[in-house]
Fold these 2 entries.
Entry 1:
Amino acid sequence: MSDRYDVVIAGAGLVGASLALALARLDWRVAVLERAPFREVAPPTYDDRTLALSLASRNILSAIGLWEGLETRPDDGSTAGVTPIRSVQVTQKGGPGLVTISAQDHGLDALGYVVQARRLGEQVLKTLPGCPGVDLLVTCEVTDIQPGADDVRVSCQLAGEDTVIETKLLIGADGTASRVREALKISSERYDYDQTAIIANVTPQVHHDGRAFERMTDTGPLAMLPHVEERCGVVWCCRTSEAESILAMSDRDFLAAVQERFGYRLGLLQRVGVRASYPLARLTVASPVAQRSVIVGNAAHTIHPVAAQGFNLGLRDVAALTEMLTQAAETGDDPGDATRLQAYADWREPDVSRTVAFTDGMVRAFSQSFGPVAFARSAGLLALQLAPGLRGALAHRGMGFGGQRPPAMALAEPAR
Ligand SMILES: Cc1cc2nc3c(=O)[nH]c(=O)nc-3n(C[C@H](O)[C@H](O)[C@H](O)COP(=O)(O)OP(=O)(O)OC[C@H]3O[C@@H](n4cnc5c(N)ncnc54)[C@H](O)[C@@H]3O)c2cc1C
């Protein structure tokens, strides 16, 4: 291990690990610092949550070598880790179905894909440790940062020992409570939704057949995502004051409560797995860049999961930053060059602003105050977010691929 790098990434969660794999192809020394023990147990971020991923995200994960392993059926007899979303059905508790958007009607195989974060973590565990050009330092917690004119000094606790690592460019991918963001004094704005997402996998009586459901209920949105082994991933957003009692319910009571909100479109909900909860907040920054540093993923923008956009947005950060840094590597430029970092920030700003605004609109629509029409419109928009190909002539504007885009972003372009 060297203590001088071209690029240091703080955090090997969903976004940091993806970025490390994307940068591994450059002729640079890259280090990833992850505070959790990684080799035996993946960081907490690789948990049971089911992630709805867009077609563009599939392309990005494929380009960095993570998708194929997810699609391949493992030898141990378990099912492959990817479930295509064939349709999105939006319904209102106590009312008729509002809207259904199907991939087939639009000549697509899928509107998007559902992947379990844990399965993605398994692929990262197979790929990142030992990846040429990348040092993965685990049980390594970033504690302080001193940016300078020529490099950034990153102070960390590596297996309990005080260590200093120097780098030309520091990338903070350390999540919503980012220490990197705080140490760099990047100002942020946080809004607490007073909602908590409770997730669990359930097995319904009727096979989901690739159908995803978004359900508007009086206590917040409930999503039912098609998943492997006939299961569905439930994301139930409730008021924070109710979360504790929902988590404390017996499995039987929990299934009955979900059934009461979801109805019987998939028959009786029969089995439920482990439950987990996530307090929901929105976090934005005026600018993700500082001297020789940039923050990406949840560290730069945390959004409500109602529109299933958080990781999709973070992957677009990965694709854009990789494009910028590839240009720097090819021309022998300094990775931490301020002009290039600012160009990255300018490039990402419209996509981030649009996605944050869109997600906030969804939260309001799903709170019923907008009424069914706006809700249905939002549901249509949700499908468009997942599958920008539905926009026909506007396809390339979807998912932030419109406007100015450097050529290598083609690798992340949705298929048309
Ligand atoms: C219930 C729920 C459902 C969701 N569903 C979807 C969905 O369907 N589709 C979608 O696109 N997105 C979804 N998301 C959003 C998605 O989970 C996040 O956008 C994504 O996890 C962000 O990844 P990240 O790598 O930026 O941050 P994180 O996943 O939080 O990773 C941060 C990493 O940094 C490490 N770290 C933290 N501090 C330090 C430090 N000081 N030093 C070193 N390492 C550190 C942590 O251990 C962690 O490994 C959902 C979120 C929730 C809560």
Note: The chain has a mean pLDDT of 86.
Entry 2:
Amino acid sequence: MLVGSNADGEDLNQYWEQDNQAWWDWYVTLADNKDKATNFVDIAPIQHYDMPSDSELEDELSTPYRLTEDHHLAFRRDGFIRLPKVLSPAAVVRLRKELIRLLNKTFPENNRSNRFLSLEMMWIESPIIKQYVLSPRIAKISADLLSVKSVRLYHDNALSKEPGCGRTPWHYDDHHFPLETNDVVTAWMPAQPVPKAMGPLSFAKPINVFNLVKNIAFNKNDTSYDKRVTEVFKENNVAIDSKPFEIGEASFHHNLSFHTADSNKTSQSRIVLANTYFADGARVVKNPTMVSGDWQKFIPGVGPGGIAASELNPLCWPANIKKKDVEQ
Ligand SMILES: O=C(O)CCC(=O)C(=O)O
């Protein structure tokens, strides 16, 4: 899966040489997959909901979500939180329809089997996805959980775990995002319910368990890192939250939260919109590595050490989205 100098030796301190889909194709090979699914579980198709109109969607995605003190405490303690009803079922169905349209345009039917498909920066192309990505509702939850005044977008990401795709390796996002700050959060918003068999995002808790595994060497060529993290978490009886997601439920995780996801053993794609936001003012790290993939696509024109505030990193909270921007 690795090419050019990325394929040589063990060194991670180099730029990624392919596109971001190639990054995911490589990354999932680093997961330990003992139990390969052979029979897929058939799950019920999503119930019918009337699609929201553009203005209903805009209203929903600009309405603040009521976070409680318990939510804040749980996020600070555990590094992630699951929130019910972040999206209405109708908004989930509209999101799914648009993500499928975009995925279908990019990935031919005959080249999807067992893969982890990804698409980023969809908000530039799709006014519908733009509503979900620059959403004041989602960005305000993110800023509030981080306890920062303002957040910018790092990227949006469609994550389609296809039937038969194996586990997502254990990791924390600090390893991936080349941002010189820990004020980074990802809103992981499934575009359908995610039962256990589909591979819900799963979190190790509390947040500081990253200290148990921070000295494990990352190996770009095999599954040893993922295996060792699993072992260390087991040895230390680390609690893993791997509950299913209801329709409309979303999780928000900090960049120090260790997470994984099981394989997709169902016959449906596990489609998710994952938006990552970071505190305004953050800089790009001085030495991005190949584990950051093609990050310059997300922060164009800003080099190592520069402030991550390109035109593709708009301030999402406080909100500056205008109706006419959405309808362009
Ligand atoms: O969706 C997955 O399986 C992994 C996603 C992930 O690691 C993330 O959003 O940070």
Note: The first helix runs from residue 20 to 27.
